[in-house]
What does this fold into?
Amino acid sequence: MRVGLFITCLGDTLFPETGRATVTLLERLGHTVVFPEGQTCCGQMHVNSGYGEEALPLMRRFVEQFGDDDLDAIVAPSGSCVAMVRQHYPRLAAEAGDPALAEAVAALSPRVFELCELLVGELGVEDVGASYPHRVAYHPSCHGLRMLRLGDAPLRLLRGVRGIELLEIEEAESCCGFGGTFAVKNVDVSAAMLADKVQHVLGAGAEVCTATDSSCLMHIGGALRRQRSGVRAVHIAEILAAEESG
It folds into this structure.
């Protein structure tokens, strides 16, 4: 399978190791990864802030970069960005009054997948040959849980990792409080939600907190570092790409 990698602007800028892990993982499974170098942001931040019209040039670029019919799928290690493309692009294209753009989006958006969704739902893979001997708590991000409906796909992949001790955390499905610009516009509420999430992660005795979205992990990981907890935030792609050393 030829898979286009959408790295996302957050991944490209702050978490490139997540993108590299995604490539490592897919290539290990025998797939060809294509990286369109002209890709930029999906426009999610603009739309979340009420600037849908300003997101149109970014949407057009995404379609231009990933509209190659030779790509069997497009994958992103980010449930929120995938949800943006699948849920919001069709509406934005319709509102733009551009039939050609709407047609291109309709053809492209069903081929865009979050990483765990692609592995389990499309490729039928649960054991990716990973080894990660750590105590790990999984945080299901809101976009993956509620918009993409990933269900237990990430957990099924984590259960197939050798040496892992997968821990349950209280109120796992509660939001971490990030929510993109929500954390900026509603600082106090966001901080309170984050405090609850971190308390549950620490209470489980985890060494690592993982999720499908770097944005959630940035938020949670920041709090864990400020508390000097010793608990790391690690994207699920990095866990699934890890192999036994030696």
Residues 79-96 form the longest helix (18 residues). The CA atoms of residues 25 and 70 lie 21 Å apart.
